[in-house]
Amino acid sequence: MQIPISKFDAISEQTIQIREPELADGAHMWQIAENSRVLDTNSSYAYLLWCRDFPDTSMVAEIDGEVAGFVIGYTRPAWPNILFVWQVAVDRPHRGHGLGVNMLDALLERTAAQGITQLETTIAPDNPASVAMFAALARRGGAALTRTTLFSADQFPGGHQPEDLYRIAPVTTQEERR
C-alpha cells in the first residue's frame, strides 16, 4: 500500500510504503524494537515467526527502501472480531510524523474484510506517546477509547510495570469515515 506523501510533511521527499511484513523484515523489526528503549524486546526468533505466521494482521513501513517501523498484531481466537495490537514501533529518525498511526490505519483497512470491529492493545503507564497515538486513532475514527487494568505489576516477574488494556470500538476504515 503506497501512502500519500502529504500525510508526512516533514519527510515528504522520501518514498514511503506501508505493506505486509516479509520474513526478511524480522531482523529489522527486532532491531527497531531493541533501539526503542520503550518496548519489551521479544527474541529475534519471535519477530521472524511473526512475519511468517501473522503477516495478515501486521504491517511494515519502508522509507526509501529501509524498514522504518512496524505494527504486529493478531486476531484473538475466541474473539475473531478483535484485533490485538502487540507492538507498534517507529525507528527514532522517523518518529513524530504520524507514521505509527498511519500504519495502524493501513492495518485496519486491510483487516476490515476479516470482520474486525474492535482494536485492543496494552500500554504501560510510563508510555504516554503510545496512549496519544491510540487516542489519535480513536479520534480519527470517531470511536470510543476505554482503558482498564489488564495485568497488575505483581502478575509479572522481574519488576515489570502494570499493563492497561486500551480498547477502540467500533473501529472504522478511512473509506467508512468519508
From TrEMBL:
Q: Which Pfam families match?
A: Acetyltransf_1
Query: Per the database record, which ranges form the N-acetyltransferase domain?
Result: 16-172
The UniProt entry, under SUPFAM superfamilies, shows:
Acyl-CoA N-acyltransferases (Nat)
Keywords in alphabetical order? Acyltransferase, Transferase
InterPro entries, per the entry: Acyl_CoA_acyltransferase, Ectoine_EctA, GNAT_dom
User: What GO molecular function annotation could you give as one example from this UniProt entry?
Assistant: diaminobutyrate acetyltransferase activity
Its Enzyme Commission number(s) read: 2.3.1.178
* This protein's pathway: Amine and polyamine biosynthesis; ectoine biosynthesis; L-ectoine from L-aspartate 4-semialdehyde: step 2/3
If you read the UniProt record, what top EC class would you report for this enzyme, in one word? transferase
Q: What is this protein called?
A: L-2,4-diaminobutyric acid acetyltransferase
Q: Which organism is it from?
A: Nocardia tengchongensis
Question: Taxonomically, what lineage is the organism?
Answer: Bacteria, Bacillati, Actinomycetota, Actinomycetes, Mycobacteriales
* Gene designation: ectA
